[in-house]
User: Which sequence fits this backbone?
């Protein structure tokens, strides 16, 4: 693709680095966020001709997800001293996860449903961008989001009912 030079990479990096770092921060230990982020952008540079114009962020999210999956398969334990006692008070998403009901509902969801909801709610992906990250068609992404929302409603009702007991 013409234009996939240093300037393209710099613009792609500046526009997306904070979003990719935030995506990684929610999924890996704090000590690994920069490594995952750097590897995602290094891969983007190497594969720059494979990234569709306008799809840079979904492509980076998908690459980041694959890197995180590889990281988790390695089974590298997180030393206790690197796990923060309290999440960052400035991060509203992490604050929301502290809520016991939310954590219980998310824990009861399938990994796929949880991924779809998190990509939509936290990362703001919808439509074609969500489809690209999930590696499915637009219709498949819409259907996955609809199913995940339905399951969320069911589980939320179950958890709230059991909390009232």
Assistant:
């Amino acid at each position: 693709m013409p234009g996939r030079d240093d300037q393209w990479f710099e613009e792609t990096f500046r526009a997306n680095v904070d979003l990719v770092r935030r995506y990684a921060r929610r999924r890996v230990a704090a000590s690994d966020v920069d490594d995952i982020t750097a590897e995602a952008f290094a891969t983007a540079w190497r594969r720059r001709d494979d990234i569709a114009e306008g799809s840079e962020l979904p492509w980076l999210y998908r690459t980041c997800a694959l890197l995180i999956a590889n990281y988790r398969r390695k089974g590298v334990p997180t030393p206790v001293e690197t796990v923060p006692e309290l999440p960052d008070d400035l991060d509203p998403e992490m604050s929301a996860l502290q809520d016991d009901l939310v954590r219980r509902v998310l824990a009861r969801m399938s990994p796929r449903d949880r991924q779809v909801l998190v990509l939509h709610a936290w990362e703001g992906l919808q439509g074609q961008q969500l489809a690209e990250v999930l590696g499915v068609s637009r219709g498949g992404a819409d259907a996955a989001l609809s199913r995940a929302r339905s399951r969320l409603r069911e589980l939320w009702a179950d958890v709230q009912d059991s909390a009232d007991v």
Q: What stands out?
A: The chain has two domains: 1-85, 90-165. Residues 138-164 form the longest helix (27 residues). Helices lie at 6-25, 33-46, 56-74, 92-97, 100-108, 111-121, 127-134, 138-164.
